[in-house]
Amino acid sequence: MADTKTIEPKTPGLVRAWDWLTETQIWTSIFRHAAPINDRNRVLVMLSNVFLHMHPVRLRKSGVRLRYTWCMGGMSFFLFLVLTFTGLLLMFYYRPTLEWAYTDMLALRDVTSLGILRELHRWAAHAMVITVWLHMYRVFLTGSYKPPREFNWVVGVILLLLTLLLSFTGYLLPWDQLAIWAITVGSNMARATPFLGYEGPGAQLLTLGGIDMITNASDARFGLLGARFVGEETLNRFYVLHCIAIPLAAAMLMAIHFWRVRKDGGISAPL
């Protein structure tokens, strides 16, 4: 009787390419464990992946219910990404100078595609202020600021202040009459800041050798505007704060905020 040979099916080329890719040093240095098909691999993947380690391995059912979380934290982060993307594109068409700021805004408004981009940025900014407030309101109602989450609550309050500062600094960039006078009124309020404002309570107490430490050229209003009046120095300062300083600070605090959610045991359970 003739010997019979077993012919094994040939592995498809796509499968062989995938196996080769997953065995390369680059792949194994990024994804250090197999697919999360069981509890052990799921935990290892979560703890070793830079994009996943901030999230808890397990979540309470209440932590993913929309009626409990309102999803305002996730919406706020999504809107921040939208603002970052649209803001980067708008930076290509905007020049923060007295000569061109308002003209560039008119050009952005008159060109249909860019006008939609600017409106998307503007409405996303309004929506982010609302969602951050609602997120803080939900956290307060559910008692998520209580131990062991006090530190994350403070981080959230700072993020709320940064969100308001982003809106405040961005309000001046169109450089129209409404923006100029709104910033003038807002900055005048800083002049009455206790101990830091020239007209605020306690400013007269800050003296060194008979020299006033807080004057109209060194108080909180001057530090905010970069000058005694709203001008090109203020526009440049607000542009840097709005486009670079505050977004970087907010992104860093968001990373800490998400990490603390995991370290504190995930989203808090209902009261």
Please explain how this structure is put together.
- This protein has 271 residues and is an all-alpha fold.
- It has a single domain (71-263), classed as Cytochrome Bc1 Complex, Chain C (Up-down Bundle).
- 61% of the residues lie in helices and 1% in strands.
- It contains 11 helices and 2 strands, in the order H-H-H-H-H-H-H-H-H-E-E-H-H.
- It has helices at residues 13-22, 25-30, 39-48, 66-69, 72-91, 101-110, 112-141, 150-172, 177-190, 220-225, 232-263; strands at 207-208, 211-212.
- It has a two-stranded antiparallel sheet.
- Strand 1 and strand 2 (211-212) form a beta hairpin.
- The chain is extended and about 105 Å long.
Short description:
With 271 residues, the protein is mainly α.
Identify the notable features of this structure and list them briefly:
two-stranded antiparallel ribbon; extended; 1% strand; mainly alpha; Cytochrome Bc1 Complex, Chain C; 271 residues
Query: What amount of the residues lies in strands?
Result: under 5%
CATH topology: Cytochrome Bc1 Complex, Chain C
Number of helices: 11
User: How would you characterize the largest beta sheet?
Assistant: 2 strands, antiparallel
> How would you spell out the order of helices and strands?
HHHHHHHHHEEHH
Helical residue percent band: 55-70%
Q: How many DSSP E strands?
A: 2
Mean pLDDT: 86
CATH superfamily: Cytochrome Bc1 Complex, Chain C
- CATH class membership: Mainly Alpha
Secondary structure elements and pairings:
Blueprint: H1 13-22, H2 25-30, H3 39-48, H4 66-69, H5 72-91, H6 101-110, H7 112-141, H8 150-172, H9 177-190, E1 207-208, E2 211-212, H10 220-225, H11 232-263
Antiparallel strand pairs: 1-2
